[in-house]
Amino acid sequence: MGSLPPSLDLPSPPPKNPQHERVSETTLFNLFKAQQGHLNYFFQNLDLSQALSFTETLLNSRGTIFFSGVGKSGFVANKISQTLVSLGIRSAFLSPLDALHGDIGALSAADILVLFSKSGSTEELLRLIPCARAKGVYLISVTSVPKNALANACDMNVHLPLERELCPFDLAPVTSTAIQMIFGDTVAIALMGARNLTKDQYAANHPAGRIGKSLIFKVKDVMKKQDELPVCKEGDLIMEQLVELTRKGCGCLLVIDEEYHLLGTFTDGDLRRTLKASGEAIFKLTVGEMCNRKPRTIGPDAMAVEAMQKMESPPSAVQFLPVIDRQNTLIGIVTLHGLVSAGL
């Protein structure tokens, strides 16, 4: 075989790092320990009275809580804003650059503007302050350097104690942003508790995520029903029901009487065990003779996540649950595959 054309040449694997570029386990361990120490410094020196005033101010907000910051602090501010939004609290991120080019029009006198800055000397934020103040916004700075310009210009300041950055040059913002995130998200959970946010309310804000689905979806929302059900009668021969057993993709037969009451289940596992035990006699056996008369079942109004838990419970896991009403009438089937496909 000839060589590949130049355009199809496969790239060679990257060379191994030389010895001096490797990270030792000891080095990594020491870095984690050092960062732990820096975070402990923050926790031990945080002024809780400032944190409480900040939290209560946000709690009593009549408008939107805007967050702003530049660079890494901007990413943190944006993330904290998104956390509040997910809790049903009116919040948004305001880019200081975009604010000075029109976006400041979103601010009103009922709003709060929280400015995150390690140094408190961020030029873009300092330029934003007089414009925001002209809109009547309440200004809060969250900084780590004492007696900074941003704190002096705002209505409230929260000092986040910073021992130093983990960076060996004390420059890269890797500890300061960590404590900003810890502070903001902890306050968010405090607001969540103060507002008595329920699980259902939280789930309503996450309808497409696994969290929301586990708290919102009921069995009746994810079950197969009517023509999708692999049903048969107890007098049907097993071998005559093989097509039904496989065609509906549930891995089982649901055995019912004339009134659609559930009598039992017969699985593909039952088929293998029956074939092994009976051999050719299987041709004369009915489904009713070999079915499980006491299958696990569930009601249509149970939570879908409860169905999954029931499937996985001892003594052995199952792949499906027949869904019945209070009169033991079969109305559906929920499968593990269906739950997983639904995002649960």
TrEMBL record:
Query: Can you give the residue ranges of the CBS domain?
Result: 223-282, 291-344
Q: Where is the signal peptide?
A: none
Q: Does the keyword Membrane apply?
A: no
A biological process from GO: carbohydrate derivative metabolic process
Q: Where is this region: Disordered?
A: 1-22
Keywords for the protein's UniProt record, in alphabetical order: CBS domain, Repeat
Annotated site, Catalytically relevant, chain positions: K72, E124, E165, H206
Q: What CDD domains does its record include? A: CBS_pair_SIS_assoc (cd04604), SIS_Kpsf (cd05014)
Domain SIS, by residue range, is 54-197
> What Gene Ontology molecular-function terms does this entry list?
carbohydrate derivative binding; isomerase activity
Q: Which residues fall in a compositionally biased region of kind Low complexity?
A: 1-10
Q: Pfam families recorded for this chain?
A: CBS, SIS
The family database entries (NCBIfam families) matched by this protein are listed as: kpsF (TIGR00393)
What is the name attached to this protein's record?
Answer: Arabinose 5-phosphate isomerase
